[in-house]
Amino acid sequence: MANTHTTPQDALTLLEEEHRAVEKLFDAFKRAADNDLERKATLVQRACELLSMHAVVEEEILYPAAREALHKPDEIDVNEAYVEHFLVKSLIEKFTTMKPGDEGFDATFKVLTESVNHHVEEEESELFPELRKTRLDLVKLGERIATRREALQSRLTKAATPH
Ligand SMILES: [Fe+2]
Prior knowledge:
By secondary structure, the chain is mainly α. It has one domain. It is built from five helices and no strands. Helix 2 runs antiparallel to helix 5 and helix 3 (78-94) runs antiparallel to helix 4. The chain starts with 10 loop residues before the first helix and ends with a helix. It binds fe (ii) ion.
């Protein structure tokens, strides 16, 4: 694989960076002029792509590892995170049939923003700190996440390129 490897990052730092990236898109959307539909469309599309990839790597890699490492499933409920992702994904789904200017477009994105912010806050204040206390190899996990993310990204890029 033609992989340009930078310094390996621990999984949680990597995911936190993704959280910051999506928050930037949320902020940009809030600041976008009401009638700038093109900009709104771009921002929503990028946020949805980023969130979809983020959800996949967390569900496939982070949460199963978290379940194993925590041994105390009652204290930190990973199931709740799955449910929150489910809600976020159903909101993302709505954007496949809506475009900026449509009734409910801005409202849907607002609810998406709020749901993601809540979820991110929970992860960063509860799940991630707990995981940092475990023996989980976060660098190794970060490598798996980065590899999976790259594959998802290239599939997305290919899908966006007309053949
Ligand atoms: Fe998440």
